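Try this one yourself first.
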């Protein structure tokens, strides 16, 4: 049986869209250690605030184009004209506070690298460098935040990052594989 078969059991939050299935099967919960990819994922999680991840996922390619591949070095040079351009782009979430947060967060990204050597190393230090493996039977058991996401959120806010509340951070930790929250019946559990 392959992961694309309808009979495969996945986490309860996955809908039937092939895009969402592929995201769950190939990305969500897989340990991510690349600074730039973690930055992109954290920025997209911030864009999700008040929305569904499915909405963000459908617009992810548009975000990547609009935000120059989430290259922090390019983003820190964004000025008012670029912000206005982004706010006119129907392919992304056009929220001024969220757009400004990406620029602010790109600056903090470099502060973290200067202070800690790498963005990934800093973020993964909150889980002692290894995924937290949970054993949830049902989706309803999965928390929206934890003491670890509280701590990471507080630390990132103290450094100046925006849209990094504990719930956003926990979703980020799940997506980046810092936490394995695939439910016990999900086929991804057997894949490690």
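Now uncover the answer:
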């Amino acid at each position: 049986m392959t992961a694309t078969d309808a009979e495969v059991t996945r986490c309860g939050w996955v809908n039937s869209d092939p895009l969402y299935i592929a995201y769950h099967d190939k990305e969500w919960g897989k340990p991510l250690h690349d600074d730039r990819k973690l930055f992109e994922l954290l920025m997209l999680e911030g864009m999700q605030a008040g929305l569904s991840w499915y909405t963000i996922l459908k617009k992810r390619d548009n975000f990547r184009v609009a935000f120059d591949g989430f290259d922090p070095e390019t983003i820190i040079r964004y000025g008012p004209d670029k912000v206005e351009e982004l706010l006119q782009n129907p392919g992304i979430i056009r929220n001024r506070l969220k757009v400004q947060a990406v620029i602010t967060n790109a600056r903090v990204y470099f502060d973290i690298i200067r202070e800690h050597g790498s963005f990934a190393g800093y973020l993964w230090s909150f889980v002692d460098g290894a995924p937290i493996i949970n054993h949830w039977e049902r989706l309803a058991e999965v928390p929206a935040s934890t003491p670890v996401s509280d701590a990471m959120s507080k630390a990132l806010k103290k450094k100046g990052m925006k849209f990094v509340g504990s719930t956003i951070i926990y979703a980020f930790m799940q997506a980046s594989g810092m936490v394995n929250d695939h439910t016990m019946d999900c086929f991804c559990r057997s894949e490690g």
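Discussion: Residues 96-116 form the longest helix (21 residues). The two ends are 17 Å apart (CA to CA).
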